[in-house]
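Progress narrative, Year 2. Work on Transcriptional regulator from Chitinophaga tropicalis advanced from sequence curation to structure prediction during this period.
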Amino acid sequence: MKIIPSQIPIITGDGCPARISAIADAIYAIGGKWKLPIVLALAGGNQRFNDLHRLVQGISPKVLSSELKELELNGLIERKVSMAGTQMMVDYELTEYCVTLHKVLDALSEWGMMHKEKIKQGFREKRQEAATNN
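Result:
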């Protein structure tokens, strides 16, 4: 199948470098192994650091701390400090801005399911081809 540039409008025209930069910024903000699992863990409500560490299985405390800082810098989560008597409590919660990810995540999920099926279909076809050639 030959791709016609107009089929992928984001890579044509004068706005191309700005659009590519915007996509790179978006991928930086939510990309990586841990950012989306952290956001999903917070979707159920506020969590403390140890709760997040337990909910996001496999993440080290050092990486969790780093990812939380990046998510906070990108305005997707908020770190709330409160006092309970003499004890300091730190909770993390999603910001209203994080809700803007909803459509993006829906689109990524849809594309991801389609892509996974395409890859699986390709493997099935190669297996069938190998079986008929033997």
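The radius of gyration is 21 Å. Residues 101-133 form the longest helix (33 residues).
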